[in-house]
């Protein structure tokens, strides 16, 4: 594919999914060349890289590098992921965790890996985390919580020296509370939807960070869109670690 027809290019992992398809469409409408990486094609993508669901992360990374690695990308966004319930006492715990690790953590790890080779200097590398996982324990959805906690760690690690990201780039994690999606509305029809964040708000913020029209948070930031009564404000999450003596 030829990205020279567009001034900017984005790589979206999970580009055909619920969040990813909105990202793909929005960036394409803004004139970006968009490569979608998913198990199926994204209608609005400039190029589609179709992965084999049975392949391992190394093979997925290899497919991306071989099929879309001839270009540098101004934004690499991991929108792939999934959700499931399950406590440590559940018989399906290990199966559930395996699924959550595969669709969430491995996807983020593949995105981080290819970003060290394909992200342009000064580019944006964005990941999809979870606000609730950062704030507290998740006993009712342990596997999901573990997978998203690992994703948060990837974001912080990508912002440190030696991560392999190019000069001037920014790694950021988006940690929604609840996204306003058709799937969530079907699952929670009586919830207060005015406190849910529309996908468009998240995608527009990503685009503004990617094209430089708004100031990016510091690399390694975990940021949360907080929506109340239909109004969304963005907050940078501050995690502090203290010490105290044990008796």
Secondary structure elements and pairings:
Elements: E1 9-13, H1 18-29, E2 33-38, E3 47-50, H2 57-68, E4 73-78, H3 93-118, E5 119-128, H4 131-135, H5 142-158, E6 170-174, E7 179-180, H6 182-187, E8 197-198, H7 199-211, E9 221-228, E10 231-236
Helix pairs in contact: 1-7, 2-3, 3-5
Report on the architecture of this protein:
This protein is α/β, with parallel strands linked by helices and 247 residues long. Helix content is 37%, strand content 22%. It has helices at residues 18-29, 57-68, 93-118, 131-135, 142-158, 182-187, 199-211, and strands at 9-13, 33-38, 47-50, 73-78, 119-128, 170-174, 179-180, 197-198, 221-228, 231-236. Strands 3-2-1-4-5-6-9-10 form an eight-stranded mixed β-sheet, with helices on both faces. A two-stranded parallel ribbon has the order 7-8. Strand 1, helix 1 (18-29) and strand 2 form a beta-alpha-beta unit. The protein is globular, with a radius of gyration of 18 Å.
């Amino acid at each position: 594919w030829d990205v020279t027809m567009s001034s900017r290019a984005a790589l979206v992992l999970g580009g055909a999914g619920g969040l990813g398809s909105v990202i793909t469409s929005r960036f394409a409408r803004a004139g970006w060349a968009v490569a979608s990486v998913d198990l199926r094609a994204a209608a609005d993508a400039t190029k589609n890289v179709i992965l084999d669901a049975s392949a391992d992360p190394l093979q997925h990374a290899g497919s991306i590098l071989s099929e879309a690695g001839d270009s540098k990308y101004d934004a690499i966004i991991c929108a792939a992921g999934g959700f499931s319930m399950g406590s440590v006492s559940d018989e399906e715990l290990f199966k559930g965790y395996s699924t959550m690790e595969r669709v969430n953590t491995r996807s983020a790890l593949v995105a981080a890996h290819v970003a060290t080779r394909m992200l342009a200097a000064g580019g944006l590398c964005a990941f999809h985390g979870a606000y609730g996982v950062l704030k507290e324990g998740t006993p009712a959805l342990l596997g999901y919580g573990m997978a998203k906690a690992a994703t948060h760690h990837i974001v912080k690690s990508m912002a440190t020296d030696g991560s392999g990201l190019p000069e001037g780039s920014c790694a950021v994690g988006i940690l929604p509370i609840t996204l306003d999606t058709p799937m969530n509305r079907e699952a929670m029809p009586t919830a207060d939807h005015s406190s849910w964040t529309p996908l468009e708000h998240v995608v527009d913020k990503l685009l503004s960070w990617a094209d430089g029209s708004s100031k990016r948070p510091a690399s390694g930031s975990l940021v949360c869109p907080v929506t109340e009564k239909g109004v969304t404000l963005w907050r940078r999450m501050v995690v502090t670690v203290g010490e105290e003596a044990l008796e």
